[in-house]
Amino acid sequence: MAVVSTPATLERAVPVMDNAEVLRIRNDFPVLNQLVNGQPLVYLDSGATSQNPVSVIEAEQEFYEQRNAAVHRGAHHLAVEATEVFEDARQTIADFIGADYAETIWTSNATEGLNLLSYSLSNAGLWAAQGRGDQGLRDLALNPGDEIVVTEMEHHANLIPWQELAFRTGATLRYIPIDDQGSLRMDQAAAIIGPRTKVLAFTHASNVLGIINPVRELTALGHAAGALVVLDACQSAPHLPLDVKDLGIDFAVFSGHKMLAPTGIGVLYGRQELLDILPPFLTGGSMITTVTMERAEYLPAPQRFEAGTQRISQAVAMAAAANYLTETGLDRIHRWEAELGQRMVAGLEGIPGIRVLGPAAGKERIGLAAFDVEGVHAHDVGQFLDSQGIAVRVGHHCAQPLHRRLGLTATTRASAYLYNTTDDVDRFLEAVAGVRAYFRA
């Protein structure tokens, strides 16, 4: 008799993370084994920047010790080895997100990836106006009357580049609003996304609300309108399994420093057929086929968008970070962080004078919680927590329009990762419970 796997049996087949395993994982992160203000460090700011395991640190160090050379340029031994590990890293990241090798573009971070894409789209209009490219390129060009749609919860990195693209092309920027709980008004999304929509850009998971947005539903709306769909995966790629092909999106961005990798490295994913017709953004060496004194011809992706000396050691280290996450199991990491997120929200909701943004306890969210303490500024909350060795983020988290919509100027945000324990969350909650009394609010 055949055995049919159900979601429940599949979940049981994958070992669930617990505090004992997390404490072993924690030993891989040297920076966490220190005292801050005389207290063991509780690092709850991974939504801004994650910490690095020894394997990632050693991968970058080993590159500089053994293989440091320019890629794609030299025929000597070190240059060949450097090129091999650089391109092997690209394949690792492509596999990590379910993409093809040539669809994976190295950037400095997600912000650069979004700017690269927005400028390439405006260059499409310039090329089309000069008779360069084919009908596919002309179809990508934005013109007055076209619309770009974002959401009210976007990080500035997924808002300002589209504002500027609208300014350069004469297109109109529109946004999908949120309700009072922070969820997207999907009823309005269906009316806003329409025949004039050329670009639909939205975050997979909000860096403030913790909400996981309905990617498939939004993508279906965008594609039905003939729009390009751009996903900000900064808060999802490090924390849950991501398959860009399965989601059906056209482009995606994420940053290495949020997924255990160094700063200065990120990724732009794009469908191959789109990347190969988009004009480049940065131009120079290593991304051309032929150059005359009058004009240049460009390579296909990925080199088409990678001018100049590349971020070689960072790419190698980012691949090591992806391997670390894969070996640990992103589905397991996601479940553990969801548990920590629920513990944070339930605890915060039980503290008088605390307003938690985003879904209430019991509803799906990633492992972060942003909150307002009545009568105490977020910066004071952050300093109070820091005095007890607890690192959190304070401010508007590069999401001023979202905070303005919710009637706030700043919040405090705690964000967990695979190296946080339930004890970390409990220490955080105990400290937050003392904030209002300390400041006599």
UniProtKB/TrEMBL annotation:
Principal EC category? transferase
Needed cofactors, names only, are: pyridoxal 5'-phosphate
Known catalytic reactions: (sulfur carrier)-H + L-cysteine = (sulfur carrier)-SH + L-alanine
The GO terms this record gives for MF are: transaminase activity
**Domain Aminotransferase class V per the UniProt entry, residue ranges:** 42-428
InterPro entries referenced in this protein's UniProt entry, alphabetically: Aminotrans_V_dom, Aminotrans_V_PyrdxlP_BS, Cys_dSase_SufS, PyrdxlP-dep_Trfase, PyrdxlP-dep_Trfase_major, PyrdxlP-dep_Trfase_small
Q: What is its EC number?
A: 2.8.1.7
- Could you list the residue ranges that cross the membrane? none
Q: Which UniProt keywords apply?
A: Aminotransferase, Pyridoxal phosphate, Transferase
Pfam families to which the protein is assigned, alphabetical: Aminotran_5 (PF00266)
PANTHER family xrefs: CYSTEINE DESULFURASE, CYSTEINE DESULFURASE 1, CHLOROPLASTIC
Its biological purpose is as follows: Catalyzes the removal of elemental sulfur and selenium atoms from L-cysteine, L-cystine, L-selenocysteine, and L-selenocystine to produce L-alanine.
Recorded family membership: Belongs to the class-V pyridoxal-phosphate-dependent aminotransferase family. Csd subfamily.
Kindly provide the name given to this protein in its UniProt entry.
Cysteine desulfurase
